[in-house]
Amino acid sequence: MQKQKTIGAWDYLNYALYAFGGLGLELVLIGLIEPLLFAGVLAADYSPTQMVLHWILTIACWGLLTFVLVRKSRQKLAFDPMQTARPTTKGIAASAALVAACVALNAWDWGGLKLLEEFRRKTLLLFTVQYLYYFFEIALVLLIVIFGQKFAETLLRRQTQLPWGGIVLGCTWGAVHILTKGSLYTGLGVMAFSLAYGEIYLLLRRNAVWSYGAMAIAFML
Description:
Blueprint: H1 9-23, H2 25-37, H3 48-76, H4 89-110, H5 114-121, H6 124-156, H7 164-181, H8 184-203, H9 208-220
Helix pairs in contact: 1-3, 1-6, 1-7, 2-3, 3-6, 4-8, 4-9, 6-7, 6-8, 6-9, 7-8, 8-9
């Protein structure tokens, strides 16, 4: 009889890293796939049509990976990341305050409401596809938070109200922005947002749908 594999904390961290690696698939597309499709045109020089195609390819990769990670987590880890516990009124209010703070910081950075500034600077098609791209990005960001929190709590053998998922997100998605954007300021800003997302997840009682909505508003608005 085959011995059943014991599920440990590091299995959950692996899934968080898979989600983070999924975000990195965009770089694979830019570095390997799209040069073949776009005759060697650099990402900085993409035409609007090429930019839309890039986002669509990225969305396809991210959407497929999100589906696979959720399904495999249920099958292999006996853990459903799509929890549906009802948030408390106090938790909703506290998370709304964090979302508002994130929106305010975005507005300060963009010189206006991010949503409106992006709309003003892009055509309707570019704006629409980019915001669809953001929705899929946040799905993987949420999974990093969920699996990161589960990793830490399995390691500690207890639930905690410390946003470990946000810390894992900050050390991955946040830190990599320093390299991809070439800016320490940007990277530290994303790390701060990561901690906020981790706290939002806990305040909303780990409800995946509510957390996703709150993170999406905080990131995109």
